[in-house]
Amino acid sequence: MKLKSLFMAILLLFLTACGAKEEVRSDKKKETMQSITVANWSQPITEATNLLVDEEKGFFKEKGIDLTVIPGAGGGDAIKNILSGQADVAFTDPGSLYFALDQGEKLKVIYNIYPQNVFNVVSLKENKIEKPEDLKGKTIGVYSLTSGTRQNLLILLHKVGLTEKDVNIVETGISNFAPLMQGQVDATAATDTGLYLAKQKGLGDVNVIDIKDYLNAPSDVFVVTEKTYEEKKDELKKFIEAYRASAEWMMSNPEEAASLAKEFAIDGKEENVNLEVIKLRNDASVSAQTEQNGLGAIDASVLQQGADTYQRLGLVKNKLDLSKVITEEFLEEEE
Fold first, then answer.
1. Which of the following CATH numbers is that of domain 119-213: 3.40.50.300, 1.20.120.80, 3.40.190.10, 3.20.20.70?
2. Less Cβ around it within 10 Å: N or C end of the chain?
3. Closest CA to 171 of 145, 190, 193
4. Pairing of the two strands 89-92 and 119-124
5. pLDDT by residue (tens digit) across 70-84?
6. This prediction's pTM
7. Assign residue 183 a region: left if phi > 0, alpha if psi is -120 to 50, beta otherwise?
């Protein structure tokens, strides 16, 4: 009995020591995790599923990144959140970037999320808005006054000689198709995914004006302040590696992403709808540039063209030099 008791005591001591070691390892792991906060342009929605599922998939945890995503109401909100120090990385549109740069803010573009311009202006067939010129005198809904929907609408107007004064722009929120369907606006500025979701909810026959036919600038990019760029290079490198891995996963496994969106996205109740939205975003994530240089590759000439267009159309006052703003150092493959 004594021998048995001695054995049990030794075993208990061993297990306690192992448990203590595991606890120390866990504490050390927590200490080595580096925090990154992303200011999103939107609420946590299906199209950004890869950014929302780290609890399940661990793309960022595996790189030592403790990720937090905070919501917003447009790309301008995302920029404001990094300028105020509420976040490290802005998930924002080029228009909001240009406006901030025009105001003298020191920023860096570190990743091209969606190289394709996915914005559009949608109207019911009965409203007979078939071309941009037909928008004159009309009431047009936008997601928010700081969103890419408004910025791209302004581009479209200026391309055909119209200004913001020639239309009535109203802020409608994320459910920007409801006012269109209810006849409260003549048209709404939206995105391809927004249009798809609206059709699922009973949107009738519509005319669609695609902004990419007038300027195919990226829809969204990751932006940081120069201060964050200088002070958190290690964290940003790991963040970009993890985001790229998450994007590759969503492209390779859209069905799994659609299933997880039911749990993590506020608009993800219907898996079949999630799948179509995810496929649209996967398509928007690739371009000739990414085919050559990998996901996130930045075509500086296209972003410069966008900035020049904004200046030419009077949307920004100053000549912006995007070559000083863009960096691809976090996209370089590990050796």
1. 3.40.190.10
2. C
3. 145
4. unpaired
5. 999 889 999 999 999
6. 0.83
7. left
